[in-house]
Amino acid sequence: MLKSPLSLALILGITWALVPIEVKANPLEAVVDSIVDGDTVTLNQGGRAISAQLACIDTPDWIDGQPETHTQNSQGSKDYLNSLIPVGSSVQYYDVGRAGNRTLVMIFSQRQNINLQMVAAGQARLHSSYGRTCRNSAEALASAETNARNQGVGIWGR
Description:
Blueprint: H1 5-18, E1 28-37, E2 40-45, E3 48-54, E4 57-58, H2 71-84, E5 90-99, E6 102-109, E7 112-113, H3 114-120, E8 125-126, H4 130-133, H5 138-151
Parallel strand pairs: 3-6
Antiparallel strand pairs: 1-2, 1-5, 2-3, 4-8, 5-6, 6-7
């Protein structure tokens, strides 16, 4: 069982090379304005605020529709996302659709797929729409969730 941060980093580094991007267009550049929760951020793109939902993942704030039972995991997911893309950091993102008033995004920072990192670290699970919304990376996301579950990390802790 691999649980160390180093082994997780190695897995994520290897996985990065295997994850195709959802869209063929060039990524958009933005700065992180705020971390709302474990899967929602506000981005600033040239002075325009973008409410962005990390595509294809779901964090404990909404798991099973019972946020009050996941308070600790919810804060943990938010804190982990903040460690990956702190407020003020520059990111690249791909717009993959809409969910209500939010833009669905695949976010990258320092060449790392943040959506995938959240799942691999056990800080998020796959959203039920991941197979449709993230077709190109669905297999990598599913594999990352399975590994996190098997290792018992994050929300899958035993």
